[in-house]
Amino acid sequence: MSAPQGHWGVILVADDNEANRELLSALLSAEGYQVVCVADGQQALARVNSDSIDLALLDVVMPRPTGFEICQAMKSKPETCLIPVILLTSLNSDDDRIHGIMCGADDFLNKPVNKPELLARVRSLLRLKQFTDELDNAEMVLFSLALTIEAKDPYTEGHCDRLSKYSVALGEKLGLPKDLRLALRRGGLIHDIGKLAVPESILLKPGPLTPEERKIMEQHTIEGERICAPLRSFRNVLPIIRHHHEKQDGSGYPDGLKGEQVPLTARILQITDIYDALTTDRPYRKAVPQEKAFAIMREEVKRGWWDGLILDEFEAAVRDHVPVHPAGPRS
User: Fold this and answer.
1) DSSP letter, residue 327
2) What is the spatial distance between Cα 194 and Cα 197, in angstroms, rounded to a whole number?
3) Residue 321, pLDDT score
4) Pick from 129, 199, 243, 312: most CB atoms within 10 A?
5) What is the dihedral of CA 153, 217, 314, 321, to 10 degrees?
């Protein structure tokens, strides 16, 4: 007999009652889902961590870890936090439901399970999971494109990754919320993605750019924003992409913003970008030592280019052992 033509998704069913596992497996398999059944919390965690699971149906009352504890563990890890979790429970108190919500549960089903309700909720959560996976794939394409830009110039090897790490560390030191630290991580990786629209004859030109060439190069911030704008998850990244070449005195581009008009996340990336550029070999000069790099940047603060308070915090972070790549000639 051929397999049923049904819905997309691998579903984990965790319940210490064999009859419940068999019932849920039969209902879901009949719809075409791939079902993985386990009898306790330890097996459930092992499956989640080792297999590609798209949704978890967890009995709340199982030998430890309980369904609550498994849910909390899944939601606390980046690798599994986006897997939808439905808690199966015969507990009906508000306290139990609140506890489940605090653990990160996406939905609840009361026992005995109602088939139409089960299938409706599973379909809904798997549809959201599919959208999330597609969004994740789109982001990965952007990151890959950004790395192709970096790969064209051997002198910028590792630049985006360093900027990402520096910026997140500085964001943490400044007390930025999680969503803006995530934007800094992403912004560090793809801030120059607009250079995809810049001809290689300009992008890789060894000498100074002509005024016409510079005008084309300066469009990369606008092009980068345009490329990433369709991704709603990048809404906090767009200001970094567009404004990371602004200056405090208004002499930057593309909009000539001044002072605090420049978004805080863009000001953070600027500082880390300049530092990394100074402490890395470039075709026109060798890397400078850390002390000299900060001295140069302080002079540029005096000229009105960068945010001095952010530079102070970054210098303190570097001296507090933020990982710094070794300066000096490449082999």
Assistant:
1) P
2) 6
3) 66
4) 243
5) -10
The SS3 of residue 51 is coil
Please give the distance of CA 91 from its chain centroid, rounded to a whole number: 36
CA distance 38 to 32: 19
DSSP annotation of 58: E
Contact 231, 135 (CB under 8 A): yes
Determine the average pLDDT of the residues in 106-116. 88
Strands (E), 68-204: 85-89, 107-110
Query: H helices of 30-109, where?
Result: 41-50, 67-75, 94-102
Number of residues that make up the chain:
331
Q: Tell me phi and psi for residue 254, to 5 degrees.
A: -95, -10
How large a percentage of the chain has pLDDT more than 90? 49
DSSP 114: P
Distance CA 44, CA 36 (A): 9
**Nearest of 230, 40, 244, 24 to residue 118 by alpha carbon:** 24
The domains located in the chain, with CATH, are 10-132 (3.40.50.2300), 152-319 (1.10.3210.10)
CB 275 within 8 A of CB 331: no
The structure tokens listed for 289 are 């030592």
Residues designated as active site? 195
HSE-up of residue 129 (Cα within 13 Å, Cβ side): 23
pTM above 0.85, yes or no: no
Q: Compute the distance between CA of residue 196 and CA of residue 146 in angstroms, rounded to an integer.
A: 8
| Contact yes or no for 227/193 (Cβ under 8 A) | yes
Looking at beta carbons, which pairs linking 34-41 to residues 24 or more positions away fall under 8 Å? 34/9, 34/10, 35/10, 35/11, 36/10, 36/11, 36/12, 37/12, 37/13, 38/12, 38/13, 38/14, 39/14, 39/15, 40/14, 40/16, 41/14, 41/65, 41/66, 41/67, 41/69, 41/70
- Judged against a pLDDT cut of 90, whether residue 6 lies above it is answered with no
Other Cβ atoms within 10 Å of 75 Cβ, number: 16
| Alpha carbon distance, N-terminus to C-terminus of the chain | 63
